[in-house]
Amino acid sequence: MTQPQLSDKVRELIQKSRIVSFATWTNTHPPEAIELFQTADNEGRYLTDEDLQQIQLLAPATTALITVTQNLRDRVTEIVDEARNDVLAKFPDITQPGGGLYPAVRADACWRDFWHFLRCITYGITGQHTDYTSPEGLHYMQLLYKELQVPLDAMVVGLEGIKAASLKRIETEQQATLAPYFDHLIEQLKQFR
Question: What's this model's pTM, rounded to 2 decimal places?
């Protein structure tokens, strides 16, 4: 199956829809630590154990949740699978002809976004900043989702599924501390509607 060609406008929006920002972190993290986060984001990857060790050395006061980040990163596939199942249960026809995630390439892009959403959330958790998003990047993501006619209700259900699947893999006493990191992105996405 051939991939549909993306328009120049869509390609430009993809480049601009970088939803993470570390601009407000300068009071809590030295530049070297912020650079580790920025490099991981630039490369579209989760923080490695080596990154996390370096961050812990550079900003020890903000690294109490590193083991949570590692746990979520290491279980991302099962977390995304659960979120996908939530979406498919609530919107059973969404991947069928006429559905918002048809053809399969659209559904695959959605599930990939779930993977990246959790990646962004783990940056916030590691840095202990719930304000980990970029208003400008979110604006461009909203334009991108509008241009591609992404089913926003399904994306919000997916993010809520990511939250539920993640929190059940975290110690009960940490769940209230961690929920705001998920809620922040859920609320941002709800504003796209």
Answer: 0.95
Q: Are 138 and 154 in contact (CB under 8 A)?
A: no
- Give residue 2's pLDDT: 47
36 near 63, Cβ under 8 Å? no
120 burial (CB, 10 Å; 0-12 / 13-18 / 19+) is: buried
pLDDT digits (tens, 9 = 90+) for 81-111: 999 999 999 999 999 999 999 999 999 999 9
Q: Are 19 and 133 spatial neighbours (Cβ–Cβ below 8 Å)? A: yes
List Cβ<8 Å contacts ≥24 apart for 9-12: 9/147, 10/144, 10/147, 10/148
For residues 121 and 124, give the distance between their C-alpha atoms in angstroms, rounded to a whole number. Answer: 5
Between CA 184 and CA 193 the distance in angstroms is 16
127 and 62 in contact (C-beta within 8 Å)?
A: yes
- Using only the alpha carbons of the chain, give its radius of gyration: 17
Question: CB of 60 within 8 A of CB of 52?
Answer: no
Tell me the pLDDT tens digit for each residue of 100-155: 999 999 999 999 999 999 999 999 999 999 999 999 999 999 999 999 999 999 99
pLDDT confidence bin for 1, thresholds 50/70/90: very low
Sign of torsion over alpha carbons 10, 6, 117, 157: positive
